[in-house]
Amino acid sequence: MKSPKLYWLVATMSLGVITSLSQASVILHNTGTTSGWSRLLVEHKGSVTTVSSPTYKGSTAIKCTQIHDSSYSGRYHSECITDNGYTPGQMRFYGFAFMLPSNWQFVNQGYNISQWEADFSNTGCDDFSPRP
Fold first, then answer.
1. For residue 49, what are the CA distances in angstroms to 69, 119, 121?
2. Is 112 helix (H, G, I), strand (E, B) or coil?
3. What are phi and psi of 54, to 5 degrees?
4. How far apart are CA 56 and CA 11, in angstroms?
5. Domain residue spans in the chain?
6. What per-residue confidence (pLDDT) applies to 95?
7. SS3 helix, strand, coil % of the chain, rounded to 5?
8. How many alpha carbons lie under 13 Å from residue 90 in its C-beta half-sphere?
9. DSSP code of 3?
10. Please, which pLDDT band fits residue 75 given cuts at 50, 70 and 90?
């Protein structure tokens, strides 16, 4: 079996904070570009690019890829990261869309298409936990 080439497409990513039931403000709204993020993380044979097709509700989308390498035992991360995700006591809402291409190869293995983590180093818990 061919090794899978992982794709995920983030078309719209919005972070919002609710200050009351009647008022909200947008902290991060990205309609499919690699600009505006705190940083991009690409490991091994991965990539993070802006593409014009396919898209969702806009003219661009973010394409994150990873190519499996059987001789590699490290991490496979291709990510757009925001450092302003949450502080204890806040109420925030997150949303995104993703697409698997029609030629996606399913294998008996788990994948993460999104990762939410937090820095708990000042609490005595494991740093950057929990991870799904």
1. 20, 26, 31
2. coil
3. -75, 160
4. 5
5. 5-95
6. 84
7. 0, 35, 65
8. 14
9. P
10. confident
